[in-house]
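Reply to dn_fold:

You asked what the input looked like. This is it:
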Amino acid sequence: MDFDTRIPIYLQIIEKIKKEITLGKLKKGEKLPSVRSMASELKVNVNTIQRVYQELEREGITSTQRGKGSFVTEDEEMISKIKDDMAKGLIKSFVEGMKELGYENKGIVKSINEYMKEE
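and this is what came back:
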């Protein structure tokens, strides 16, 4: 995984895991790799992955079973919420970028409609 130096690594890993959950690459109830295994795979510090897992658990995306590891939530609503939140983030970033270019809401919607027609 190539990391963006402008964004903390743990946040990038959280986004990667969330994306894998929404895409179904990580299934509901599936066990996440161990902290050491994930750290080795991504070539990051073990403490970074520990922080990632703690944050995912704090957000209710995973749960930890003592002695067994961390597991992806089985809550379908939570998984839908993750997807919706990620979509809102993409839209927000896009709209902010368009406004920096001088577009107003009407122009942004027009651009999206034209782009979608070309797809």
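The chain has a mean pLDDT of 95.
Hope that clears it up.
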